[in-house]
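From the methods appendix. Each design record in this collection lists the tokenized structure first, followed by the designed amino acid sequence. Records were kept in a plain field format so they could be parsed without special tools. The example shown here is representative of the layout used throughout.

RECORD:
FOLD TOKENS (243 positions):
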């Protein structure tokens, strides 16, 4: 019996460690992408006037950073009890769109660091993610249909950038949400929240990159238009050489 318990604890510990590695790697992606795109944000977003789209961008951009201390507690806290885990989990849930990371507040009776999801009921774990999957699939299908119907002959770089990045964004997130939902419902214990942090980070990274790429394309278009206007209205004249 003791050997069976030891083997179960060893299996649980190894699975939990995998979840921790994925959580840390996911947040490393967040910080790395932020470093790569900060110059675009400073140039294209910060000087712009305050609009609803700017507010949404900043929320999508910086909410994952507000969750980071909770992630550190979630991953590394030793002797975590149910109450602080429930508080951390609830605060993280409140900052995630449509319950992207909803989880049951169950802490296993193992001396393992962090708050570890061992199980949960379908209504708390599965339903919010089904809503996410359906929402992303509908948006992706609508984006494809609208882009094909209205803009398939457009050569506007702004429109091309918007629909190219949008389609890639929704495709990746739809696939990721389906995988995450499948794992939450039927995955093994202690691995059910394996993709939660990764999916949360990808939502932020992809959405912010779409906005930055669209604004960059618009800036380039304005720059080309300005340059063409300068040439048309200049007094510089060109002539072919004569022999």
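DESIGN:
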């Amino acid at each position: 019996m003791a050997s069976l318990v030891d083997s179960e604890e060893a299996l649980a510990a190894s699975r939990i460690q995998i979840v921790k590695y994925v959580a840390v790697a996911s947040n490393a992606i967040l910080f790395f992408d932020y470093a790569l795109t900060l110059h675009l944000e400073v140039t294209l977003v910060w000087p712009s006037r305050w609009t609803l789209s700017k507010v949404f961008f900043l929320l999508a951009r910086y909410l994952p950073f507000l969750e980071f201390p909770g992630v550190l507690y979630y991953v590394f806290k030793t002797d975590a009890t149910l109450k602080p885990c429930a508080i951390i989990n609830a605060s993280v849930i409140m900052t995630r769109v449509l319950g992207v990371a909803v989880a049951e507040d169950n802490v296993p009776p193992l001396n393992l660091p962090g708050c570890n999801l061992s199980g949960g009921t379908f209504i708390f774990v599965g339903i919010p993610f089904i809503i996410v999957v359906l929402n992303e699939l509908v948006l992706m299908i609508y984006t494809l249909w609208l882009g094909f119907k209205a803009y398939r002959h457009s050569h506007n770089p702004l429109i091309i950038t918007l629909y190219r990045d949008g389609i890639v964004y929704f495709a990746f997130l739809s696939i990721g949400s389906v995988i995450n939902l499948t794992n939450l419902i039927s995955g093994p214990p202690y691995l059910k929240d394996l993709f939660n942090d990764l999916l949360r980070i990808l939502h932020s990274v992809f959405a912010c990159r779409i906005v930055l790429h669209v604004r960059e394309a618009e800036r380039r278009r304005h720059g080309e238009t300005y340059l063409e206007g300068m040439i048309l209205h200049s007094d510089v004249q060109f002539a072919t050489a004569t022999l």
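APPENDIX NOTE: Helices lie at 2-44, 52-76, 82-94, 122-151, 157-186, 196-232.
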